[in-house]
Amino acid sequence: MNGFFRESLLASLLGIALALAGCGGGGGSGNTPGASAPTAVVQPLPLPGPYAVACSNIVQVFTRLGPGEDVTSYWEGIPSDSGTPRYVIDLLENQNNTLIATVTAPQDSNLYGEFVGQQVKFVVLVCYPTTADNPRPDYPLNPPQTDRVVPHMQTGSDAPLFADASVRYPVVAFSHGYLGSPIDSDDYMLALSVCASYGYVVIAPFHGDARFSNLRIDNLADAIAVATHPENFTALQALRALSISAALDLVVAHPQWKDHIDETQIGGFGASMGGETMLLLGGAGLTTSYFDIGSTWKQITHDTRIKAAFGYVPYFGQPILPAFGRDQHGLDGINLSFLGMSGTADTTAPIIETQIGMSRLTGFRRLVALSGVSHGFDKAATNDIYTWLITFLDAEVRGDPDAVSRLSTMGSVAGGNDDSVLLY
After folding, report:
1. Residue 338 to residues 60, 122, 145, 311, 361: CA-CA distances in angstroms?
2. Which residue from 83, 110, 289, 323 has the fewest beta carbons nearer than 10 Å?
3. What domains, with CATH codes, occur in the chain?
4. Are strands 139-140 and 149-150 parallel, antiparallel or unpaired?
5. Contact indicator for 197, 48 with CB cutoff of 8 Å
6. C-alpha of 164 from chain center
7. How far apart are CA 161 and CA 126, in angstroms?
């Protein structure tokens, strides 16, 4: 599985929970009785959109890598074999020229475990619509390990070069999947670029999940560490949501960016655990107990700036460990507009859990099923994914009347994979 959704199944935790608690259930289809699913087939949007794309400064000194070190370990916050911390901030050429948000973990040990009161830094990448003749070169990400680039990247103290400096652009807050980063896969870079090419400023923190809880279970010691410190996994999830809000705070107040952003038009895009992050930002309650099928849950935050969010294979947990409390009741009454796209063959983020959770939302909700897709970016569904995404954002964030009308009847995208509306 590539870096877009390199998720752990939390095998040891789930196995222990299953042994102690058995299986849960509950929830219905969530559709209004007598209502009919939208059926209109729309043509895919062109990819990319009409704008060229540029990004903020994340110049790194790759010669700092030790022998045999993989740069993605820094991007994802994975410590060395000896336990030495690693994070992308350690590779930055000049921290003053890179956007870095700071979160102070609140004084709640049930949510933030051993990180209570600590200040945590999150490097932030911003991509945005730029001029067609932007002269800044693409920035290569550590060749020859990858041919991936950051397009038209700012260097030094360069200011962003917007397609139209007089326009205030809508925003997409982007949250990658567990143990990923905004730049560690072509799929993530495509996600950032497509949104920016359609006129959005995309704000994407490097969550650095492994700094808080690395749930790779390689041996018995790892399994014991995970099972005995589940609060660090809770902290990981909670800090993700706070890092998105902190990144928004940073960029909307930054002198180079603040006059080019429309703070009344902010949406979100989350991949896998990033989908969970978006709902936590919407006020959802996060599971805080692990061996009783999520009998307790607690709200992390509620960032009312985010009007709507899109989740691709969004993580709602497992039947024995739901993400939002038992039977997803932590989502009761949440009115964040949410469109989810789930694979029918996904066992990491099962579509049934997504359906149960989304059925509890009270705002606009739409769940689209991708037939036969497992937990990863489905190349065959590329046009489907981004046509749903941009149509949804244009309708629910921008309020574009044409997009609102199209979304109201949209049942599938022509070509690509088999996509169909399950919850409406």
Report:
1. 35, 25, 37, 7, 8
2. 83
3. 3-28+37-423 (3.40.50.1820)
4. antiparallel
5. yes
6. 28
7. 12
- Mean pLDDT per block of 10 residues along the chain (424 residues) reads 46 43 51 81 97 98 94 95 94 97 96 95 98 98 88 98 98 96 96 98 98 68 59 94 98 98 98 98 94 91 98 94 95 98 96 97 96 95 98 98 97 96 94
pLDDT for 298-315, tens place per residue? 999 999 999 999 999 999
